[in-house]
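Lab channel / #folding
Pinned by the channel admin:
"Please post every new chain as: sequence first, then the structure tokens as a reply. Keep commentary short and put observations after the output so the thread stays searchable."

First post following the new format, from NK:
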Amino acid sequence: MIQNIIKGINGYSGALALISRLKLWKYFFIPIIISIITAAIIGVTAYGLSDNIGQFIAKIWFWDWGKQTFTTISTIIGGIIIIAIGLILYKHIIMALSAPFMSPVSEKIETHITGIVKHNHRKTSFQEQLWRGIRINIRNLGRELLITIPILLLKFIPVVNIFSTALLIMVQSYYAGFGNMDYTLERHLNYKDSVKFIKQNRGLAIGNGLVFILCLFIPFIGVILVLPLSVTAGTLTTVKKLKTSNQTLM
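Reply from TO:
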């Protein structure tokens, strides 16, 4: 697992240079716009709701002693909840809507890596790529929320809440990497087999998604570069794994 996480992270090495070499920036224009608009909407909403959620949580403390301390802690936890849910919604929205634009990028990178111009790929249209992106991300959104909500509840438990933060980041990273790798898998595997492939290579997904999540904490630049870098890295990692697995590249 650890080795695969490192491999997933290493996929980012040279990603920026490869995008420029293959002249792929034009394909990222619309996804970048989608990313900026989505981030802005979620950011404004999160800012407005964090205090309200903190005050709502604070109401469960009925005693006068420690009321101020608990309110402060609740506000912080409210902010964490908003950030966590905001990140979940952000990544699934941009990944779903960007699928038809990212698939051609992934294919060009794969052609560059393998040297195979004519692949025996699954043929899918713009609409099919968009639908698959939406389907994958709705599935992942539901599963991620089911896992994330209990983790967020652990933040009310002292000491345990430290480990829950690390677990939360791992979950976020896994599903971010899942989406980035599926842009390549879409050409080689059907929906069911793609899900199976990602489960068998969780480390690669986590490694890719970890950098994705960290990029989002870079003001403004993060939401611009996160998709180009993560999709390129995800493609490099996935193609290499497909070449060494039973799914041969044709």
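NK: Residues 67-114 form the longest helix (48 residues).
TO: also worth noting, The chain has nine helices and no strands.
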